Amino acid sequence: MATDHSLELSKEALDDDGRKARTGTMWTCIAYVIASVIGSGVLALAWSTAQLGWIGGPATMVGFAIVTYISAHLLSDCYRSPHPVTGKRNQTYMDAVRVNLGEEHTWICGLLQYLSLYGTGIAYTVTTSISIRAIMRSNCYHKEGHNAPCAYGTDVYMIVFGCLQVVLSQIPDFHDMEWLSIVAAAMSFCYSSIGLGLGFAKVIGNKRIKGNIEGATMATTAQKFCLIGSIKTCEIQKDTLKSKPAENKVMKKASVISVSLTTFFYMCCGCFGYAAFGDQTPGNIMTGFGFYEPYWLIDFANACVVLHLLGGYQVFNQPIFGFIDRWFVNKYPNNGFVNDFHTIKLPLLPPYRLNLLRLCYRTLYVVSTTVIAITFPYFNQVLGVLGALNFWPLAIYFPVEMYFVQMKIQHWTKKWLLLQAFSMICLIISTFALVGSVEGIISEKFK
């Protein structure tokens, strides 16, 4: 009887896919969503609002929040296939695409996802160097006065960041370090909150709200980069939510709350920053030196950015490393250069197993992102291109098409027409934003 009881318990401890039972609730899910979407892009929101003005800025933010919710709503029903409640789990976003849309779409999806991750590595390299430079300038201004030149380049800091990433990229199982995600989330909340607080304090000090209702149009891409976190829906459901109640229903409720909270936070960051500086709002609220004092707080905020991005670079690029590792192992199963590990003993450290293939290609990978970052060191424009490239295909097209297949939506029905119109409108917006962002990079490069 005791044996049967233990077997029964062991079965209860597993989900229907044979993995350890998930225990997450709606509130756990909300925490994961918020932590996954708040990043360095929030520092550009004040500039984005300044480009769009008091009407266009908040309206665009709310618009993309609605788009994000719709996308997450559609994806919630694609976590299991062929039925959204009783079907087999899709462990990743790409798995959902493969099951619903086939291999050809999966390759396109994978290419776009990996391109997005690669671009994020470039953006993180640029942002880190700008934040380090801001720390140096902040200390200089504090000592020499606000009119001192305090000129520092960014290339050296990018190279240092790249060297650190070469070392970090060789650490085994880096993606499994749960504490790293916790630290990254804490750092992002720190610098975001500091930026919000300083903006609010400056508005109070100014005793008036700056800005006007007019603006440019390029900033929508920076806002999209911040708001679109819906493609993480499958991963969050896979890693977090328990089976009952149905994951898709819980995810939809969590999406409403998390998108609402995140949008409110972003609105505060963008609007208070714009209200503080008006048309002179810097591109990066923590590095553009709208704030000079307290210098130690600005230093701390930028240090949080650096720590966040130092680990974040690896978190975002580990999926690419894993894909390359698997491809080489499957392609050359008997090749020593690909498969052999060499044990190296370092003082005061445990033995390290070095793989020559990983050493070579991961080093070249980091070098490539560093070189591109040095060539195009433009924070807002890089965010814009990343947002525009991936917004429509990953956050709109694939979720809509998968939803059609999953829910068996017939052509020319009311729901089909509405979702197709929704997809086309987002495509048009994304195309204009991409053109504007590319033009911005070219203008910055040759001005």
Automatic annotation (TrEMBL):
Span of domain Amino acid transporter transmembrane: 22-442
A GO cellular-component term linked to this record: membrane
Keywords carried by this UniProt record: Amino-acid transport, Membrane, Transmembrane, Transmembrane helix, Transport
Domain of life: Eukaryota
Pfam families: Aa_trans (PF01490)
Matches recorded under InterPro entries: AA_transpt_TM
Claim: Transmembrane is one of the keywords in the record: yes
Name recorded for this polypeptide: Amino acid permease 7
Subcellular location: Membrane
Membrane-spanning intervals of the chain: 24-45, 52-72, 115-136, 148-167, 179-201, 254-275, 295-316, 359-379, 385-405, 417-438
A GO BP annotation: amino acid transport
Transmembrane is among the record's keywords: yes
